Amino acid sequence: MTMINIDRRKLDPFDRYTMHKLVVQVECKRNCMKTILINLSAIAKDLYRPPIYLAQFICYKLSAPVKTSKEQDGYFVNGAHACEKLQNFIYDFIDRYVICSKCDNPETKLSVNKDQKGDVAVHQSCNACGHSRTMDRKADRLTQYIAKHLLNAKAKGEVSSGTKKKNRSKSKKHINPVNATESTGEANGTSTSTDSGDDSSSSIDDDWSDDSDLDKQLAERCDQYGRLVGKKKTDQKLNDIETVKDLLAEAERLEIMEQAPFIVGQCVFTENILKDIDDYKLLFTKLCTKNAKGQKYLLHAIEALIGEHEEIRKKIFNKKTMSKILLKFYDEDIIEEDTFYTWHEKASKRFTDKNTAKEIREMANDFIKWLRTAEESSDEEDDDDKLPEPQIDFTDTVNKSPVKDYGEIIDAENI
Ligand SMILES: [Zn+2]
């Protein structure tokens, strides 16, 4: 067990503030790589922060879910990640959420309060120098998360028995970008409930009353969303403007905007995928607008389906159909040019086996070539390319991509 200084700028080997050095282990099971963060809990303890904060932070940085694993008593993330990179994320976390900005001491604590206007603020106060600062909740996803987490804890502490009881029935099958299978059509219908039958949550803004959903791991939130989409599909409501609006808002709320197109794709695509795209055009367009990562995930959904469903593979795993599908996404303004390029650049085995991923990209070669030339020669037609703005008020939900807050999101598959 190696201990290192909490403050990466301090080189003194006898500094009193130390923490465990991160230990990771990369595992490969059934063609699936994962990186286990073996001692994340111990590090969190050294920093006097809940391990979930660190896990969430890494999750935002990697743009990939960090999951808990019971057997290892720890956390893991899909893909192979260098320990040094993850250690640097921990240092980044410390700089932002642990070390006092005035005296550099790491003995700080975080608290949350609400002013009379109902604005929620997270404060960091230093035990050493007494300095207190307010953290900018709006500029920072983890601060938002911390605010919700602390409010939730506060509410639970105040009314011990009055915490919300949610029906968290789990279906056996999962729909999520990590573990993609088909829809169960089963939905618990409670995912959007904002009922607050206790005193503690009535003192909390409606905005915050659902925060327990955000404590769930990403994969679970994706499952929850998948169940909702499955239910709407069974009810034949996926084309309703109201439903589209709700699904967009729900993806926002669950902070899964990137994954949402993948989840919907998994849920609705059949071997008649061109028709499916037509049928659910509005939903796809809304979910993918200004959401490059989401667009890429939609392409990954196709890869995953080809990998998993024999009938779909038979029907669409050929150059002609693949080109048609890609062109359709392009023509309908669901996926933008640049996204096709980044997707095409690198075959990943995260969604299907490597060979299939490669073959799909080879099948796309002509389309990509065409796209590059079309791009050069169609500048004057640009105005026609844009879909008219829909007459629905989506307020500001469309523009916020959940990952924009950190400048240096690292795509898990590019490592
Ligand atoms: Zn201080």
TrEMBL record:
Biased composition (Polar residues): 178-189
Cited PANTHER family: EUKARYOTIC TRANSLATION INITIATION FACTOR (PTHR23001), EUKARYOTIC TRANSLATION INITIATION FACTOR 5 (PTHR23001:SF7)
Alphabetical UniProt keywords: GTP-binding, Initiation factor, Nucleotide-binding, Protein biosynthesis
Alphabetized Pfam families for the sequence: eIF-5_eIF-2B (PF01873), W2 (PF02020)
Region (Disordered): 156-212, 374-400
Keyword check for Amino-acid biosynthesis: no
InterPro entries attached to this UniProt entry: ARM-type_fold, IF2/IF5, Transl_init_fac_IF2/IF5_dom, Transl_init_fac_IF2/IF5_N, Transl_init_fac_IF2/IF5_Zn-bd, W2_domain
Protein family membership: Belongs to the eIF-2-beta/eIF-5 family.
Biased composition (Low complexity): 190-203
Protein name in the entry: Eukaryotic translation initiation factor 5
UniProt domain W2: residue ranges: 208-381
Biased amino acid composition, Acidic residues: 376-386
GO BP terms, alphabetized: formation of cytoplasmic translation initiation complex
GO molecular function: eukaryotic initiation factor eIF2 binding; GDP-dissociation inhibitor activity; GTP binding; translation initiation factor activity
Keyword Protein biosynthesis applies: yes
